[in-house]
Amino acid sequence: MKVLFCVSEAVPFAKTGGLADVAGALPAALRRGGLDVRVVMPLYRGIARDGLEPVLTVERPVGGRTIAGAVRRGTMPNGTPVYFVDAPELYDRPGLYGEGGRDYDDNLARFAFFCQAAVAVRRDAWTPDVVHCHDWQAALVAAYLRWERDPLPTMFTVHNLAYQGLFPAAQFELTGLPGAAFAMDGLEFYGQVNVMKAGLVWAHVLSTVSETYAREIQSPEYGMGLDGLLRVRAADLFGVLNGVDYSQWDPTVDVHLPARYGPDDLGGKARCKAALQREVGLPEHAYAPLVGAVARLVSQKGFDLVTAALEGIAAMGVQLVLLGTGDPSLEAAFRAAAARWPQQVAVTIGFDEGLAHRIEAGADMFLMPSRFEPSGLNQLYSLRYGTVPVVRRTGGLADSIVDVTPETLQRGTANGFVFDAYTPEALLATLGRAVAAYRDPGLWRFLQQVGMRADFSWDRAAGRYRDLYALTAERAARWR
Ligand code: ADP
Q1: Which residue is closest in CA terms to ligand 1's atom 13?
Q2: Which of 75, 398, 450, 464 could form a disulfide with 240 if both were Cys (CB 3.0 to 4.6 A apart)?
Q3: Which domains, ranges and CATH numbers included, belong to the chain?
Q4: Atom 20, ligand 1: which residue's CA is nearest?
């Protein structure tokens, strides 16, 4: 089976979050299973052009002007072929979606052109059996296929319902779609253009990145205004938890670490902890529980709970190492915390792949108090690094982290600490339970071992996607 994977970021070429990790690893896992999967993505600044082979030229009117671009073929280091959509006026910029916390004004034009180029690849370069689109940036592919009466089976995956691609109605013409597509059963959404709806309405099969999130987004609480539509499409909506690329995220092979370790010998983890404390400027206390966090600092991730709980966290005697960037007010709050508790709180504002790995390895616990979390990758990485997750029960966190209770300990499934209420008190109580467990070396070692031995590899998820592609082909045949 041949699958064209349309996505706006992929490791190692461009990354702002988990989507890039998925797009870097899932196609390769599917290819190992015998599928021919190829990726189409924009050619951003910083992606090396050497060795890319021209495949197509693409000229499309976008609004009042014609954008001239090209498609160039390259390869991921893991062997996955990539079609890069090259249009310097749209993609040769410092950011992927924006700069300095502001989205680019012409994002609708940028991703409308990208989707048209992806359709051109399907027409003129390579004929897939299924097209798999990811998030709003690739959603218009489903609209173009539908309005051009192209029967190609289409699957759409929501990696985060919070980013829907909302634009003023006046920009609708940039899509190049007929006016009839700007309707309630199309892209119209309370008077605005909602690009993600193209995928949700016209793809034959929908998925999201955990089973719990697939249920949650059908409720008003998590549905971001789209829960009604998602309930209508419930029979076509599936949840598949993301996997981990263990060639990148495993402490036995991780190139970013000062020492390697595995489940049978955790000595290297102690060295990683000491090195991390030195790196971020905290006292090298081997027995201080070290809490790590790496995240986009946005309201989704729940760090307002952490800032509200900081006094209590400091009083527990833990050390907190945070890496993140995003909302300026959260950045300022954490900078202030680091200034107030220099012996206990270390904050790095920025995006640093190597430090993200060293925090996973050097921390004892990993904190994810998310308001919502479609899949979450960091808790899965943490398990493999023997870093016990402390998480809120939502989305993919609920599907991967099993709270420590007498029953789960007895069953041997306990692998972390989980709280329900979105309150600083619940966070503190659960962190307190984790710190108490940390003081019991036998129990702690057991939790680490359960986590490190768990298998969240992509091969498992790839099997589910293969089934969903078959289902997409079946449903598309019935729609015709
Ligand atoms: P999301 O996709 O919502 O950002 P995930 O947990 O699924 O959340 O994936 C986040 C990915 O981005 C992880 O690989 C994480 O290490 C990485 N990441 C997030 N923020 C940073 C940062 N400031 N520096 C380095 N890596 C980061």
Answers
A1: 18
A2: 464
A3: 2-243+459-479 (3.40.50.2000), 267-455 (3.40.50.2000)
A4: 295
- The response to whether residue 98 sits with its C-beta less than 6 Å from ligand 1 reads no
* pLDDT tens digits for range 314-366: 999 999 999 999 999 999 999 999 999 999 999 999 999 999 999 999 999 99
Contact, 356 vs 276, CB < 8 A?
A: no
Q: Which residue is listed with tokens 């430090």?
A: 355
Q: Please tell me the distance between residue 233's alpha carbon and the centre of ligand 1 in angstroms.
A: 30
Residues 186 and 128 sit within 8 Å (Cβ to Cβ): no
CA 406 to chain centre: 33
For the Cβ of 377 lying below 6 angstroms from any atom of ligand 1, the answer is yes
In short, whether 244's Cβ falls inside 6 Å of ligand 1 is no
| Closest among 448, 321, 441, 427 to 382, alpha carbons compared | 448
Sequence-ordered list of residues with C-beta below 8 angstroms from that of 362, at least 6 positions apart, any chain: 269, 272, 273, 274, 275, 276, 277, 290, 292, 321
So what's the pLDDT on residue 480? 60
SS3 419: strand
Q: What is the reported pLDDT for 479?
A: 78
| CB of 256 sitting under 6 A from ligand 1 | no
Mutate to test the pocket of ligand 1, among 296, 299, 327 (most ligand atoms within 8 A of CB): 296
Task: Report CA(124)–ligand 1 centroid distance (Å).
Answer: 35
**Confidence class of residue 63 from pLDDT cuts 50, 70 and 90?**
confident
Structure tokens at 75: 């390869």
Partners of 84 in beta bridges: 41, 72
Residue entry with tokens 């370069």: 125
Ligand 1 atom closest to the Cα of residue 21 is 14
Give distance in angstroms: CA of 17 to centre of ligand 1: 5
Q: How far apart are the first and last CA of the chain?
A: 20
Cβ neighbors of 316 (< 8 A, separation 6 or more) are 289, 431, 432, 435
Q: What is the rounded CA–CA span in Å between residue 262 and residue 11?
A: 25
As a whole number, mean pLDDT of residues 393-418 equals 98
Q: Is the pLDDT of residue 14 over 80?
A: yes
